Amino acid sequence: MNMIALTPLLERFEMENGTIVTLLLFTGPFGLLPGGLYTLIERFILRSNSAAIGASVWVFLLLCVEAVKTYRQNPAFKISDYSIPTWTTPLFIIFVIHFLVPNTSLLGHLCGALVGYLWGLGYIKFLAPNEKILRWVEGKLNLLGRLPHYVSVDQKTYGRYGVLPSTSNSPGVGPGRGTLGAANGIAIGPVGSTQRLGP
Fold this sequence. Notes:
This protein has 199 residues and is mainly α. It has helices spanning 2-17, 19-27, 29-45, 56-73, 89-100, 106-120, 131-141, 143-146; strands at residues 76-79, 82-85, 180-183, 186-190.
């Protein structure tokens, strides 16, 4: 279940941040920070010794990153007369899962959520490696050419497939493939189409 929930969230994070950044963050700080926080609270504050395993911490970390982005575009949603901040949605899910699914770690999920909120708000963005170093590594290893679906540092801003083609007013340069042609400002269909309408 964790992998089913994690895969689309992780793919979206990769498209926005790049493959190397995602790999480095999830094998480093995004595992160490929630795990270290969980261990400190569990051992020294709660003084217990319970184990927590699974990828659900990452699921809630990424849900909180998405919740912060949603909050910036749509601060609240209404249920009846109540206005609920959108950033609280993952917290609601964490508590529902804690009560419905046995043997889940409420503390572990909350630690993951905290790290997700910190990343989403930009407080720990410094954990991502420098882009100049990443470009150098990508160039030396030719990762874009070797790995299918690799998201490079330069592609991450525009998504996995880079900049989409657009129309151009330069002489001798037509619109990109798959774009719409226009006559007097009215879209007439895909440029280069051989399909004729009517006789």
